[in-house]
Design goal:
Blueprint: E1 3-8, E2 17-22, E3 30-39, H1 42-48, E4 65-72, E5 84-87, E6 90-92, H2 98-101, E7 113-114, E8 134-138, E9 143-144, H3 151-154, H4 160-170, E10 178-182, H5 186-197, E11 201-206, H6 212-218, E12 222-225, H7 230-234, E13 239-244, H8 252-256, E14 259-267, H9 279-283, E15 288-291, H10 297-310, E16 316-320, H11 324-332, E17 339-343
Parallel strand pairs: 10-11, 10-13, 11-12, 13-14, 14-15, 16-17
Antiparallel strand pairs: 1-2, 3-4, 3-8, 3-17, 4-5, 5-9, 6-7
Helix pairs in contact: 4-5, 4-10
């Protein structure tokens, strides 16, 4: 396979810069994808700067990948050249454990092979992600992108979309349920759109009062700024579900008290500090505190089909690859509505 253009972090301290990687020719049941767009997830920042302590360098980030099939290996029967496809947060798993057999590969007992900063199942190489012009993936871990979704706006669905869709489906959110979405960023804006499409009545809680109009435009029926704390008393005991997308430390107890009896709060963000939790916040109204992590391949395809049927796609700002370092800094300031997506054509041709 010819050398493949990419952008990579050479070290945790270096900005992303042009880089070259090798992509393998498709083996049996693999497809080679020409990447058209790649979403920019906050995880890309964490890993490229080694903020979690297990990054592998040099690193090509990117796990919100959309493109078209360029070549297929022997035995491929799900895709053909030219198909619009996507690749999400992982590209393989053990396939043998109970979680994999239950189509919950994200919880693979031997851990899934992540799209980047992972290691191939045979140990042969570190995986490299979607800030590149090509990727080769087994067809079982490739998604079909419906025609109804614009390809650039489909890219963030492969992470932000499934991360919010999965808990909404798993915990049984239905028409008429009152749902709080905490935080209106890349994840939060998808949670509002998907929950609204499911018929829920969505309230957005944010530290940024200036996001009110955006929240309502996305489908929310109510919005409240949390800075003064009044919302926690005024809306106590009113909601069925809370989707918490915030990764900064915050008081879980205050949010739990917004729930009705038997209400459920689902954590999607990962703060960098442990949270104090008062047992009474759960006990007094039989509330539940849970978490959720992306979704399996079948559920991700279900999410894409749901989004196509309901006219749901991510709100994006399309950028050239040479703006990625600036985009990272803007993300850290919350200066994006609501997901950066890289136009991979800006990398040039191989």
């Amino acid at each position: 396979m010819p050398a493949t253009r990419a952008y990579a972090a050479a070290t945790a301290k270096s900005p992303l810069a042009p880089f070259t990687i090798e992509r393998r020719e498709p083996r049996a049941q693999e497809v080679l994808i020409d990447i058209l767009y790649c979403g920019v997830c906050h995880t890309d920042i964490h890993l490229s700067r080694d903020e979690w302590g297990f990054s592998k360098f040099p690193m090509v980030p990117g796990h919100e990948i959309v493109g078209r099939v360029a070549q297929v290996g022997g035995g491929v029967n799900r895709f053909k050249v030219g198909d619009a496809v996507g690749v999400g947060c992982f590209v393989d798993s053990c396939r043998e454990c109970g979680q994999c057999k239950a189509q919950q590969e994200q919880f693979c007992d031997q851990r899934p092979t992540m799209t980047y900063n992972g290691v191939e199942r045979d140990g042969s190489a570190v995986t490299q992600g979607g800030y590149s012009t090509r990727i080769t993936v087994h067809e079982d871990y490739v998604l079909r992108v419906p025609e109804a979704i614009p390809l650039d706006r489909a890219a963030p669905l492969l992470c932000a979309g499934i991360t919010t869709y999965s808990p909404l489906r798993h915990f049984g959110v239905k028409a008429g349920d009152r749902v709080v979405v905490v935080g209106l960023g890349g994840l939060g804006h998808m949670a509002v759109k998907i929950a609204t499409a499911m018929g829920a009545k969505v309230t957005v809680l944010s530290t940024s009062p200036n996001k009110r109009d955006d929240a309502m435009a996305l489908g929310a029926v109510d919005f409240a700024a949390t800075a003064d704390g009044k919302v926690f008393g005024e809306r106590a005991g009113q909601f069925d579900f809370i989707i918490d997308t915030v990764s900064a430390p915050h008081d879980y107890n205050a949010y739990l008290n917004l729930l009705k009896v038997d209400g459920t709060m689902i954590l999607l963000g990962v703060p960098d500090q442990p949270a104090a939790l008062a047992a009474a916040s759960l006990i007094m109204r039989r509330r539940k505190l849970s978490g959720s992590f992306i979704g399996g391949i079948a559920e991700t395809q279900e999410m894409l089909d749901f989004c196509a049927a309901h006219g749901v796609a991510s709100d994006i700002e399309l950028i050239a690859i040479d703006r990625i370092n600036t985009a990272y800094e803007r993300m850290l300031k919350g200066d994006v509505r609501y997901r950066f997506v890289i136009d991979i054509a800006s990398l040039g041709t191989d």
